[in-house]
Amino acid sequence: MALFAAIPGNPTTIGLKSPSRTPFGHLKLVTLNNIKATMNNIHKSHFPPLKLGEELVAMKAKKVLEALEEAIPLKHPEEIHKAMRYSVFSGGKRLRPTLCLASCELVGGDENSAMPTACAVEMVQAMSLILDDLPCMDDEDIRRGKPATHKVFGEETAILAASSLLSLSFQHIAERSIGVPLDRVVGAIVELGSAVGSLGVLGGELLDVHCEGKEVSMEELENICVAKSSKLLEASVVCGAIIGGGNEMEIQRLRKYARHLGLGCQILNDIQDIIMSTEELGRTAGKDLENDKATYTKFMGIEESKRFSQKLIGQAMEEIALFDASKAAPFTYWANYFLTELAY
Amino acid sequence: MALFAAIPGNPTTIGLKSPSRTPFGHLKLVTLNNIKATMNNIHKSHFPPLKLGEELVAMKAKKVLEALEEAIPLKHPEEIHKAMRYSVFSGGKRLRPTLCLASCELVGGDENSAMPTACAVEMVQAMSLILDDLPCMDDEDIRRGKPATHKVFGEETAILAASSLLSLSFQHIAERSIGVPLDRVVGAIVELGSAVGSLGVLGGELLDVHCEGKEVSMEELENICVAKSSKLLEASVVCGAIIGGGNEMEIQRLRKYARHLGLGCQILNDIQDIIMSTEELGRTAGKDLENDKATYTKFMGIEESKRFSQKLIGQAMEEIALFDASKAAPFTYWANYFLTELAY
Question: According to its UniProt record, which cofactors does this protein need (chains A, B) (predicted)?
């Protein structure tokens, strides 16, 4: 991995850690030494949907950033809005909002109608990362290579900004989903709420913190990982489909895609926490080991974890195989993106 | 005030601090020494709507507690649900949810249709108190005479429980407002979000913390107090009216009632922080002075603050004078309740 970390270059506007890890655009920075990017390109030249997926995801990510810019203006009181904006615009792959928009289109909707929901899931993601990093949680000083929100603004502002992002996420869906049938708007709010709350991200975070240093069963580990990681991805994809008017079968397939991909990504995170440097990770490496977290790598070792993650992402891809390949390109793209990460 | 604090008795199920301060029921505990309660009774015997208001509020508070019991069951993960329940069921006058239900009825709706919204505003209130008490905010160890949520469950659980209550509040309105036209459901979610977020309760809390030890103008003080205290009361009343199908004029009048009452109550809180004991308050007395908070008492002294608060509550009463007196009885009751508090 150190090979890629050594390549100079600025993070992109959509916040990936280095050019070698950029999933779309910026190919001018690819060098001969960048084996991973080269392999990615070879892969894409043999599989057109990946190239299309990359372009679609890049376009969607750009639109999401523009919409978030409008959704979180720098109003009075400035300090809280600065902290909200800092956490939302500090980078990130924009996996969840781009899949939310893609999901809406996949079931026949217009992606613009899902934009408020896409912004909302990214607000929730930012909220969860702010809380994650607090001293009483994972006590992490850096996030995406920058100081964590509470290190810049103080704990009180970080907590209030996180809560404000959470509140705004629901308000934004309700207020800005113009022209969307109201049963879909209400349905998306219910789905998001169930993914975020005590039975989702926040409950999962608590289990994660409370399981430090303890023995957990495979079932408990899966429950923790699904709650803290998969559920928001699942809600992102399902909410997009709800807003787009997807039917039960479509929603079910997309839910399964996200559930599998989300768990696969969490296992990838566990692996990267061990094998990558702090610079590559953008956060303190080895933190899971230091905190004696319940992780898949602790449970089954790195190699077995890799195989399990690959299997899950493969299962995710199966779920979208029946959809139109062009419209499903962003889904194929993201699955391939994480499989490529796993290959190194 | 010490006179009333000395009266023995348990807090009621709706969590008031002592029998003398109970706004409904439990009159068997009233003694000859309890001047305040006696005066209250004399007042009521000359003004029937106050007695009716007391009964209506007591009934509504009971129903709200039953609905909250159902809304926040003790599920897995237990620790987070225990913390959510601890904060929600630790007492409180239930001012906001009872006015939410009353508001729905006042504009011609069925109070049951506003019950999910009434529960939601009480969840938000509990959330704000959990955050308020955190070490990085007001650093308060006791709340309503009991250990603050973070003292019982730890900071991490308290913060995650607070966020879960906030998330659940929106989800609950969206999921449980059965039979309510969806434009009203969505309207209530927007109203609640705007009252809670960075421009409401949470932004106000930040200004409140950041103004400690600083000189603020009268206008800034009013902005802080309205944001941190009035806006949620306003949303409670307005959301009830939205769910009940109130017209613009009705909503405007109810908003003004709540805005004035909310600010009046905040000033009363400022006064009580100085003149009441920790036992009477149920939280550490003199905390505002200790933290050098921006308060009305600091700005204009106790007597002037009292007069200003009385004036505001009087203005609140004027706003509801044009409604049917029986249906408006809970509004009259609460205004009178706080005026009585101010008289001592």
Answer: Mg(2+)
